[in-house]
Amino acid sequence: MSGSRTIAIAGATGAVGADMIKTLEKRNFPVKDIRFLASKRSVGKKLEFRGEKIEVEELTADSFKGVDIALFSAGASRSKEFAQPAIDAGAVVVDNSSAFRMDQNVPLVIPEVNPEDALKHNGIIANPNCSTIIMAVAVYPLHKAKNLKRLVAATYQAASGAGAAAMEELREQTSNVLEGKNINPEKFVHQIAFNLFPHIDIFLDNGYTKEEMKMLNEARKIMHHPELQISCTCVRVPVPRAHSESLNMEFENEITPEEARDILSSAPGVIVKDDIQNNIYPMPKDASGIDEVLAGRIRQDCSRNDKRGLEMFVSGDQLLKGAALNAVQIAELLI
Amino acid sequence: MSGSRTIAIAGATGAVGADMIKTLEKRNFPVKDIRFLASKRSVGKKLEFRGEKIEVEELTADSFKGVDIALFSAGASRSKEFAQPAIDAGAVVVDNSSAFRMDQNVPLVIPEVNPEDALKHNGIIANPNCSTIIMAVAVYPLHKAKNLKRLVAATYQAASGAGAAAMEELREQTSNVLEGKNINPEKFVHQIAFNLFPHIDIFLDNGYTKEEMKMLNEARKIMHHPELQISCTCVRVPVPRAHSESLNMEFENEITPEEARDILSSAPGVIVKDDIQNNIYPMPKDASGIDEVLAGRIRQDCSRNDKRGLEMFVSGDQLLKGAALNAVQIAELLI
After folding, report:
1. Interface test with A, best of B131, B149, B152 (most A CBs within 10 A)
2. Measuring CA to CA, how many Å separate A37 from each of A78, A212, A288, B151, B233?
């Protein structure tokens, strides 16, 4: 390999790990050497990178010698265990888990929103939660122009957010339901085939889930907007890999749908799909496999008597912009 | 049959028609005679009622002689064409279409909300839109206690809302996607299998769909609350027959989640499913086939600094409470 950086991917065999590999390839990331790390049971498995088969190694505290950038997507507990050894070995950690996101010493970065924060790191840069990223990429440009005060969100979150095995569970369970077979949920707490449920991550004392509160807490940090108010309902739906979100926004200043479409048309990472005459609007099927967040159904909130409210619907690939792509973009900021 | 009323069902071969028949049976409606009406191509088909096979007749202006109550679920254009002939023949029409809902001379009734309006009819009583019914059954008791000012809704609407053929399209298309076959959407404008889209009914000039504005206009009429503000996003999801809705409510008076649960525990037509410690909350799978609307995930809106906001998630069977059951309940008010 002809690049300048040695990369490690912790959690290389997972759904996000697979897309990190593809994204590094696709974006011609200057990789000199790459190391695929995972738990013991994946050791010896071979993954391809730029046509080369590379054996998966066990993720240990000794995995990071010579590594410049370590992309972590192996869950919060592994991030907590192995981020420091990686830093001690000289790597910068880009962490996709929730382990460090709200740590004051750790920047939380969406390159389209707050790239400058990435450079203030102390060894770790956190990748935000998928639904936060997909919302913020589309909402931040509007906030910058008109000052967002309050957001009411309802999400339509794909199976991929729960990992590769959950995506397979959706597929297999759906097939079993169609054949009239008994089903046995494993990765999800309830049947996901032809069903949905308002439960992602654990419940907190205020009745919200942790996933729902991430939208508020992470958005405040990323947007440097501590007064922002958000109420969110996160719902898992039987869709493979792209999240959608219905967003009701209240701004300090007036904003029309036309202005919003103009702003988003030139915003990075967003494609405006908003041609209702031709049945064009964001859908997870169209957002799957692409880098951009799709934004549409933009209209003036009819429940208000002023022009400070907008409705918008967005879809974004959970594994790409919601995770792997955002992490690789952060790594690009480090070069 | 031993009852006192002659009933006609216009649209008896549709998804809602089938559930009207089942609901009349299940609730021991006092049926003396029953007539199944449909379009020409269904004539001669036999449907069962209380163990008796009854032949489907063609829906014409002459179909209603001797009929006491005509339940219409054959689409708005047929309602417009055949409601008057039915009235002229002496029947009271309970109409499931959107044809007469906003007509000032036609009551729009949810028996749990405004049963008294049913008695003020001039021959027609309209059945509200499915998503309006499912919302209002759960929200009206809270409104009565605390005065609802504004509602922001995002829906998760089942295939059944588009009819029996659409339910079959979801099933068959899902099977085809799993087998890697090409798919060809017919009843839906886009692929519904493993996908979703924010588009139900036609688009209006304000950027909302007609379905979304029904939630506002119908709720104002049913609740006798002309100042009520609603902004709604209606989304079709790959679920067979129960709608879900994420509801963000703003009240004039303070209301806590505990109060809301108390109020809904004794409200007609609602089952509170709100035990997050045990992963119990409304889901379309559990709402399918039952009469009640499930309400849960009730929590204080964390985006407000007062106690005037609540979040709630509801699921209800689109074909039963959203259509057939509500129509039969209206018919019961006429006895």
Report:
1. B152
2. 11, 30, 26, 48, 43
To which H or E segment does residue A239 belong?
Answer: none
SS3 B173: helix
CB contact under 8 A, B199 and A279: yes
Q: What is the sign, positive or negative, of the torsion defined by CA atoms of A162, A168, A174, A180?
A: negative
- Condensed to tens digits (0 to 9), the pLDDT of residues A277-293 reads 999 999 999 999 999 99
Residue listed under structure tokens 């493979």: A240
Active site residue B243: yes
Measured from the Cβ of residue B122, the count of other Cβ atoms closer than 10 Å reads 11
Q: Quick count: other Cβ atoms within 10 Å of Cβ B35?
A: 21
Decide: residue B317, CB within 10 A, 0-12 exposed, 13-18 middle, 19+ buried: buried
List of long-range contacts for A255-261, beta carbons under 8 Å, 24+ apart = A255/A142, A255/A145, A255/A146, A255/A307, A255/A308, A255/A310, A256/A300, A256/A307, A257/A298, A257/A299, A257/A300, A257/A310, A257/B207, A259/A145, A259/A146, A260/A142, A260/A298, A260/A310, A260/A312, A261/A298
Residue A328 · residue A29 · CB < 8 Å: yes
Q: Scanning the structure block, which residue is given the tokens 């995972």?
A: A38
Count of beta carbons in the 10 Å neighbourhood of residue A144: 13
**Annotated active-site residue in B121, B143, B234, B243:** B243
Work out the average pLDDT over A315-329.
98
Check the CA dihedral B210-B216-B217-B218 and report its sign. positive
Chain B CB contacts of A281 below 8 Å: 197-199
Locate B68 and state its tokens: 């006491």
pLDDT at residue B141 in the model: 98
Identify the closest residue of chain A to B230 by CA–CA distance: A303
Q: Are A128 and A117 in contact (CB under 8 A)?
A: no
Q: Which of B311, B312, B317, B318 to mutate to test the interface with A (most CBs of A within 10 A)?
A: B311
What is d(CA B335, CA B316) in angstroms, rounded to the nearest whole number? 26
Q: Are strands A52-55 and A46-49 parallel, antiparallel or unpaired?
A: antiparallel
* Per-residue pLDDT tens listing for chain B (335 residues): 678 999 999 999 999 999 999 999 999 999 999 999 999 999 999 999 999 999 999 999 999 999 999 999 999 999 999 999 999 999 999 999 999 999 999 999 999 999 999 999 999 999 999 999 999 999 999 999 999 999 999 999 999 999 999 999 999 999 999 999 999 999 999 999 999 999 999 999 999 999 999 999 999 999 999 999 999 999 999 999 999 999 999 999 999 999 999 999 999 999 999 999 999 999 999 999 999 999 999 999 999 999 999 999 999 999 999 999 999 999 999 99
Query: Are B320 and B17 contacting, i.e. CB atoms less than 8 angstroms apart?
Result: no
Give residues with Cβ within 8 angstroms of B93, minimum separation 6. Answer: B70, B72, B79, B83, B86, B87, B123, B124, B125
To the query of whether residue B232 is one of the catalytic residues in this protein, the response is: no
